């Protein structure tokens, strides 16, 4: 019985360490995200002050949403989608109204727990590398497949153009956090999207209960 308690304690400690590692990897993405957003503001500042002012307001709302649950390694998918929608609003002010976002996620799936900044870096990659200064659409979808959650971010941008798939900071950071939280129970697949751009598919365990937050004392 004593051995069983020690094993349970060790498993709990391992889970908490994984959550701390995931949180640390997630905070590495925040400065990258913030710098890119501030650069978007500076781009408009002298060209269109009114648009720059609107972007500052949208960016403030976005950062408030991003920091609201910053101590937790995970958040509901619905909150991550809301963050992505606000981020695209900021980028639309920069690139123009032709930048489009389509979200295809059933309501009954939006309560699933996902790592913070799971989708936003992937959407950011699609916009910055797929479109830059031309019109385009990013599609975010998710569905439940048994005990797994499948999330897909795809675009109709310029695609790979025959170049090999290379993981940038967004995909690499996502992979690191998934590994820290779920061990080998995750998968990331990069490929060509149905619309000719790039598609990133992330599969992770499906669950809706909220795990103990990082820093909360053990029972």
Describe what this molecule looks like in 3D.
With 219 residues, the chain is an alpha+beta fold. It has five helices and seven strands; from the N terminus they run ααβαββαββαββ. It has helices spanning 2-45, 49-68, 77-95, 120-130, 169-182, and strands at 74-76, 99-104, 113-115, 136-145, 148-155, 187-192, 198-205. Helix 1 (2-45) runs antiparallel to helix 2. The chain is globular, with a radius of gyration of 18 Å.
Give the arrangement of secondary structure elements:
Layout (H helix, E strand, L loop, with lengths): L1 H44 L3 H20 L5 E3 H19 L3 E6 L8 E3 L4 H11 L5 E10 L2 E8 L13 H14 L4 E6 L5 E8 L14
Parallel strand pairs: 2-4
Antiparallel strand pairs: 1-3, 4-5, 5-7, 6-7
Helix pairs in contact: 1-2, 1-5, 2-3, 3-4, 4-5
Unreliable stretches (pLDDT < 50, length at least 5) are: 10-14, 16-29, 211-219
Number of helices: 5
Q: What's the helix-strand series?
A: HHEHEEHEEHEE
Structure summary, number of beta strands:
7
Helix content estimate: 40-55%
| Nearest-integer average pLDDT | 75
Shape: globular
Overview in brief:
The protein is of the alpha+beta class and 219 residues long. 49% of the residues lie in helices and 20% in strands.
Defining key terms:
alpha+beta, disordered C terminus, 49% helix, 219 residues, 5 helices
């Amino acid at each position: 019985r004593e051995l069983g308690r020690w094993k349970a304690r060790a498993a709990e400690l391992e889970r908490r360490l994984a959550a701390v590692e995931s949180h640390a990897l997630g905070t590495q993405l925040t400065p990258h995200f913030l710098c890119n957003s501030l650069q978007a503001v500076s781009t408009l500042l002298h060209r269109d002050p009114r648009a720059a002012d609107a972007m500052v307001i949208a960016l403030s709302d976005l950062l408030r949403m991003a920091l609201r649950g910053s101590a937790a390694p995970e958040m509901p998918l619905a909150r991550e989608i809301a963050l992505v929608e606000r981020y695209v609003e900021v980028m639309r002010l920069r690139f123009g109204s032709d930048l489009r976002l389509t979200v295809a996620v059933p309501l009954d799936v939006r309560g699933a727990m996902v790592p913070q900044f799971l989708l936003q870096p992937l959407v950011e990659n699609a916009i910055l590398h797929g479109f830059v200064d031309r019109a385009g659409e990013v599609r975010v979808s998710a569905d439940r497949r048994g005990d797994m959650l499948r999330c897909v971010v795809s675009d109709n941008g310029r695609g790979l153009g025959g170049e090999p798939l290379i993981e940038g900071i967004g995909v690499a950071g996502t992979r690191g956090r998934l590994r820290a939280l779920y061990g080998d129970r995750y998968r990331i697949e990069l490929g060509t999207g149905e619309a000719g751009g790039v598609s990133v598919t992330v599969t992770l365990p499906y669950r809706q209960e909220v795990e103990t937050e990082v820093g909360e004392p053990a029972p």
